[in-house]
Amino acid sequence: MKIINATLRKRTGLYTVTCNAERIAAIEEQTASVAAAPGDIDASGQLLIAPLVEPHIHLDATLTAGQPQWNMSGTLFEGIERWGQRKASITHEDTKQRAHTTVRMLAEHGIQHVRTHVDVTDPTLAALAAMLEVREESRHLIDLQIVAFPQEGIESYAGGRALMERAIAMGADVVGGIPHFENTREQGVSSIKFLMDLAERTGCLVDVHCDETDDPHSRFLEVLAEEARVRGMGPRVTASHTTAMGSYDNAYCSKLFRLLKQADLNFVSCPTESIHLQGRFDTFPKRRGVTRVAELDRAGLNVCFGQDSIKDPWYPLGNGNILRVLDAGLHICHMMGFEDLARSLDLVTDHSARTLNLGEGYGVAVGRPANLVVLDAESDYEAVRRQVKARVSIRAGKVLMTRVPERVEFSHLAQVPAQAAHG
Ligand code: 17E
Ligand code: FE2
Predict the structure, then answer these.
(1) Of 11, 58, 205, 324, which has the fewest CB atoms closer than 10 Å, so is most exposed?
(2) Distance CA 55, CA 353 (A)
(3) How confident is the model over 63-72, as a mean pLDDT?
(4) For residue 212, how far is its CA from the centre of ligand 2 (angstroms)?
(5) Cα 63–66–72 angle (5° rounding)?
(6) Measured from the CA of 313, which atom of ligand 1 is nearest?
(7) What is the DSSP letter of 286?
(8) Using an 8 Å Cβ cutoff, are 180 and 205 in contact?
(9) Element (DSSP H or E) covering residue 14
C-alpha cells in the first residue's frame, strides 16, 4: 500500500510512503504532486503522522458518571468516593463493554497506543481480569498498556501490597501508585519504595499518580525521581499529574528541576481534568492546578498530554478526541507562542510514545510498524487551530478507519449581496 502526496512533520516537500505487509518499506520525496493509482491513498498535501497516543486514561471507570450519584463538589476526593460506590457493582461484562466502547472512541480519533490505569484496590481484581481480556480483544485497534493502579492506596488499603503483586503476576504491564492519597507522608514514601522495588524486580514500567493535589506540601515527586535516579530507571518511569508543582514556590522548583533532569523521567499532564478537579479549595484568585508543562518542556524533560477520563466520577465530559485536550492544554499552560503551536502535536504523539517506551515500535521511519494517520491539516498549527480529525487511520499496513469529511452548504441567503461584491 502507498500513501502519496503526504506532508511529513518537521520536513518540507511531499512524500510517498510505501507500506510492505506490516512495516514501512520506503519514504520517498516527490518532486511534484502525483496522481493516485488504484489502491493508493492520496493525502492531498495533508499531514501523515504516526498515530495519536493516549498515555493516561482510566478505561475501567469510563462511562460511569452519575452512577449512582454525580460528583457535585468537583473534587478528586469526591470522585474517589463516587467511584468507590460504583466499584461495588462492577462486573466483568460491564467493565469490558464500557472499555470496548471507549477504545472505539479513541480509535475513531486516530489513537492507536493507549495506557490505561486499572483500579486494583479490589480484592476480586474483577476489573483487571476484564481489562486483560480487553487488551487482547482490541489488538486490531490499539496497543494497550495496563497499569496496576492502587486507587485507594498501597499502604492505606488492606492488603494493598499483595494486590499490587497479584496484579503484576496476572499480567499488568506497568506498576502504579498514589502516594499523595496514602494516609501519611511516611506511607506515601514507603509506597514509592515498594512500587519501585516491584517494578525493578519484574521488569515492569512505572506510572505513578503523583501529587495530584493543590497542596504545595505534597512532595512525592522528589521521592519518585530520586528512586528513579538511583536505580537508573528514569526513562521507564512516569509521573502523572504532578499538579502540586503548580503550587510549589520557585525556589523549591529550582532545586527540584535539577533532580528531575538527573533522573530523566517522563511526565503526563491531563490539563482538562486538572483544570476541572483542582483549584476547588480556592476562592479567588484561583489556581490553575496544572503542572509546569512549558517549564518541564523547556528544561528538556519529556512531557505529554492525556485525557484521563471520559464521563466518569472525576470528569463528566470527553469524547476520545485528544486534540481537544491539546487545545485546552496549550491555553492552560500558556503555550500559544508560534513555536509551541508549530510543534504542538509532539505533546500527543512523539512525547507520549516516549513515555510509553514504544521505541522503534513507533514513528514514521523505514522499518517501523505501518501504523499511520492522515490528519486533515498541513501543519501542527492548523491541526490544533481547526481541531481537525483523523481522515484515515492505517494499522499494520491496512486501512482501519476512514472518515468522510463534513461538508457545509450555505443556502442562497448566505450569498454576498451584489453591491458588496462589486465594492
Ligand atoms: N483517579 C485519580 O486518583 N485521579 C484521577 N484523575 C482519576 C482517577 C481520573
Ligand atoms: Fe489518572
Answers:
(1) 11
(2) 8
(3) 97
(4) 9
(5) 125
(6) 9
(7) P
(8) no
(9) strand 14-20
Measure 351 CA to ligand 2 centroid, in angstroms.
18
| pLDDT number for residue 255 | 98
Query: Which element (helix H / strand E) includes 375?
Result: strand 372-375
Nearest CA to ligand 1 atom 7: 314
Confidence of residue 417 (pLDDT cuts 50, 70, 90): confident
Measured by CA distance, the residue closest to atom 4 of ligand 1 is 76
Q: Which residues contact 319 (CB under 8 A, 6 or more apart)?
A: 105, 310
Say how many Å lie between the CA of residue 209 and the centre of ligand 2: 6
β-bridge mates for residue 375, sequence order: 47, 390
Model confidence over 188-237: pLDDT tens digits?
999 999 999 999 999 999 999 999 999 999 999 999 999 999 999 999 99
| Pocket residues: Cβ below 6 A from ligand 1 | 58, 76, 151, 178, 209, 212, 273, 308-309, 314
Q: Region 49-76: what's the mean pLDDT? A: 98
The C-alpha cell at 368 is 517501523
Residue 416's pLDDT band (cuts 50, 70, 90): confident
Q: How far is the CA of 209 from the centre of ligand 1 (A)?
A: 8
Catalytic residue numbers read 212
The three-state secondary structure class of 194 is: helix
Assigned C-alpha cell, 215: 497542596
pLDDT in tens, 169-186: 999 999 999 999 999 999
Alpha carbons 141 and 414: distance in angstroms, whole number: 42
What's the whole-model pTM score?
0.97
- Name the residue with the closest Cα to ligand 1, atom 3: 151
- Closest listed ligand to the CA of 273: 1
pLDDT of the residue at 33: 97
Our CA angle for 329, 180, 71, nearest 5°, is 65
Helix (H, G, I), strand (E, B) or coil at 340: helix
**Complete domains list, the chain, with CATH:** 2-50+364-402 (2.30.40.10), 52-359 (3.20.20.140)
Closest ligand, as measured to the CA of 74 = 1
Whole-number pLDDT of residue 423: 55
Mean of the per-residue pLDDT values of the chain: 97
pLDDT for res 222: 98
The atom of ligand 1 lying closest to the CA of 312 is 9
Per-residue confidence band for 405, with pLDDT thresholds at 50, 70 and 90: confident
Ligand nearest to the CA of 57: 2
Nearest ligand 1 atom, CA 178: 3
Q: Which DSSP string corresponds to 243-261? A: GGGGTS-HHHHHHHHHHHH
